[in-house]
Design a protein that fits this description.
Blueprint lengths: L3 H18 L4 E7 H5 L8 E7 L4 H6 L11 E5 L7 E6 L4 E8 L13 E4 L4 H9 L8 H23 L3 H22 L22 H11 L4 H23 L5 H9 L8
Length: about 270
């Protein structure tokens, strides 16, 4: 049976490609994500990236909610701001396009470009960029690890504060971010990084970048409904992941200090 949504996605892709290839200012079009890797399913989005010459870039951003109307029947835009170089387009077909714009002069080798699918490259700039990116890695820096660790500490302590105040939605939000932080730690220990802060992309389901045992640990966390109880279950998992991350980057683990901060969620405090 033909996947009708796949047919709709293909029509949208063809429409945007034909439209953009006719514009002199467009110096490249490529796809990222599951479209680029051939791993699309019924609910996959379209991740399209458009390279624009520097002189025309501002004009293209100004029309980022105009041009997509030529590709299909737009239902609404999920736009982060008029000056930012991307927008998210929701079509009536229930297909979503994440559309990003790049200045041609700002393209630099990056691990992201290793797996792109190039559909328009008149100057062969993208082909060269993809080749130059082949040897790059997403290995985290010591600064990124410090930021990750600090956010974990903050989430743990906020769960205690918000639980004491009976602010359960806030506490649950922090507990959910602990689960994401754990997944991020597992990736960092292997010299990898999540797609973005708080992004669950490729962390769950059959396309997950996590190992089966790691996914089971996340499932175990999700079954614990009370945020403070989930935090308690999380701590030994985090300590193990933290140790591996530090070892992979030859960073001091500071185990006693880390444990002290984590265990404060159960410390009795005077009112």
């Amino acid at each position: 049976m033909i996947d009708q949504r796949q047919t709709v996605r293909e029509r949208l892709c063809r429409a945007l490609e034909v439209d953009l290839m006719q514009v002199e200012a467009v110096r490249g079009v490529f796809y990222g994500g599951s479209v680029a890797t051939g791993e699309t399913d019924t609910w996959s989005d379209i991740d399209v990236r458009i390279v624009v010459d520097d002189a025309s870039f501002s004009a293209f951003i100004a029309e980022k909610q105009v041009r997509p109307e030529r590709w299909g029947n737009v239902l609404f835009y999920e736009d982060p701001g008029t000056q930012l170089p991307y927008t998210i387009i929701h079509y009536r077909s229930f297909v979503k396009i994440d559309c990003f714009y790049y200045r041609q002069s700002e393209l630099k080798p990056d691990p992201f470009f290793r797996l792109i699918w190039i559909v328009y490259d008149p100057d062969e700039t993208l082909a060269a960029l993809k080749q130059q990116s082949a040897g790059t890695t997403r290995k985290p820096s010591a600064e990124e690890v410090e930021r990750w660790r600090g956010k974990v500490f903050a989430y743990l302590h906020e769960i205690r504060r918000r639980t004491e105040r009976d602010e359960q939605h806030y506490a649950r939000q922090c507990a959910d971010m602990l689960s994401w932080s754990l997944a991020a730690g597992w990736l960092m220990a292997r010299g990898d990084m999540p797609d973005g802060f708080g992004s669950w992309s490729k962390l769950e389901g059959p396309r997950s970048r996590l190992m089966e045992a790691e996914q089971k640990q996340l499932q175990a966390l999700s079954r614990v409904t009370e945020p403070i109880d989930r935090a308690r279950l999380f701590i030994p998992m985090f300590l193990n992941a933290h140790s591996r991350v530090c070892a992979s980057l030859d960073m001091p683990e500071k185990r006693n200090w880390v444990e002290e901060i984590c265990r404060m969620i159960d410390r009795p405090f005077e009112s």
